[in-house]
Specification:
The protein has about 325 residues and is an alpha+beta fold. Helices cover about 45% and strands about 20% of the residues. The strands form three sheets. Strands 3, 4, 5 and 6 form a four-stranded mixed β-sheet that branches. The protein has a three-stranded antiparallel β-sheet with strand order 7-8-9. The longest helix is centred in the first third of the chain and has 78 residues. It is elongated, with a radius of gyration of 43 Å. The relative contact order is 0.06.
């Protein structure tokens, strides 16, 4: 009797153990399936986040492009002016004014204003119209050493030796240079040649001017290099350089010294601003400009005393959304 019960219990226990092992295997399989599903969900979430970031970046680019097109279509269109129509209207108005001036017996073109204001020292200045300057200063009157450089033409000199033409003076220009010991004057004398052909016609030929680093400037390259070295290399401000020029008997204001620096920089250095300006002119759809007036305090001197501020301008140029450039203007004349 006991053996039959033991066999039955043993059988039930084996069944329970088998069911337990099957349940454990099922749970293990479910756990593995959940882990794999979790990994796949994580990968899916990463892909969705990446796609979301790409969509956001694309949306931002599209929004910026839309704003740029709005600016080009509406703002640029509002700023564009039909210059041909303006020229026609101006010509019509000018004809009407000329006709009105003739009817009233007035001169159609008013003469230039004449400045006859007395000078500060009491002497009366000569007549000078308001559309002419005083001209370049006379460097020959400065008490500084002088150096003369003659530039002949080899081909015409050969003709002079052959007796086919003769030298006919010089075409001279004066520049201010610097060398160890101080300033000196450089006379650039280009030889002029006179030739007479068989018909008796006279022809005067001047030796061409060689290439210059600072064209149309009174400063020779040595003086420009000296100013830049004093200002940048030695850290001397321009007003001190101006004082040193005055002690040498050569009065050059700091504005001229600054322009010399700009000329040398424009000639020798391709700066980022120059590249921006060139790129803006070449590729910009619309360049918005505006000149803002500024007051520049003049240099104090004991001879003139205090003077009112001078009116100058800063020109702002906005090329689409790519470049913003500034330029200083002594006069804003359109």
């Amino acid at each position: 009797m006991h053996s039959v019960v033991d066999d039955a219990l043993r059988s039930e226990l084996e069944k329970a153990l088998g069911a337990r092992s099957e349940l454990a295997a099922l749970l293990q399989a479910e756990r593995a399936a959940l882990a794999a599903e979790r990994v796949s969900f994580a990968l899916r979430i990463a892909d969705l986040e990446k796609e979301r970031d790409n969509l956001r970046a694309s949306h931002e680019r599209l929004r910026q492009e839309l704003e740029l097109w709005k600016r080009r279509i509406f703002i640029a269109k509002a700023e564009r002016v039909d210059t041909t129509q303006l020229e026609l209207e101006f010509a019509d108005k000018l004809r009407q004014l000329d006709a009105l001036a003739g009817t009233l017996g007035m001169a159609q073109r008013p003469p230039a204003a004449v400045d006859e204001t007395p000078a500060r020292d009491g002497k009366r200045r000569g007549k000078r119209t308001n559309n002419r300057g005083t001209g370049r200063r006379d460097l020959r009157s400065l008490p500084i050493p002088e150096e003369r450089i003659e530039i002949p033409d080899p081909h015409l000199d050969q003709l002079v030796q052959e007796g086919k033409c003769v030298r006919h003076g010089f075409d001279e220009s004066v520049k201010l240079a610097h060398k160890r010991g101080g300033k000196h004057r450089v006379i650039i004398a280009r030889v002029r040649y006179k030739a007479v052909d068989a018909a008796g016609d006279t022809d005067v030929i001047t030796t061409p001017m060689p290439a210059e680093m600072l064209p149309s400037s009174i400063a020779a390259p040595s003086l420009g290099a000296h100013v830049i070295m004093e200002n940048i290399g030695k850290g001397m401000p321009l007003f001190r350089i101006e004082d040193s020029f005055a002690r040498d008997g050569v009065r050059i204001d700091r504005g001229t010294l600054s322009r010399w620096k700009k000329l040398v920089g424009d000639k020798l250095a391709q700066t980022v601003v120059k590249a921006m300006y060139t790129h803006a002119l070449a590729t910009a759809f619309c360049i918005s400009t505006d000149a803002t007036g500024v007051c520049v305090q003049p240099i104090y001197s004991h001879e003139k005393g205090r003077q009112p501020c001078q009116k100058s301008h800063f020109l702002v140029m906005i090329a689409d959304r790519e470049h913003i450039l500034y330029e200083y203007l002594d006069k804003e004349n359109g």
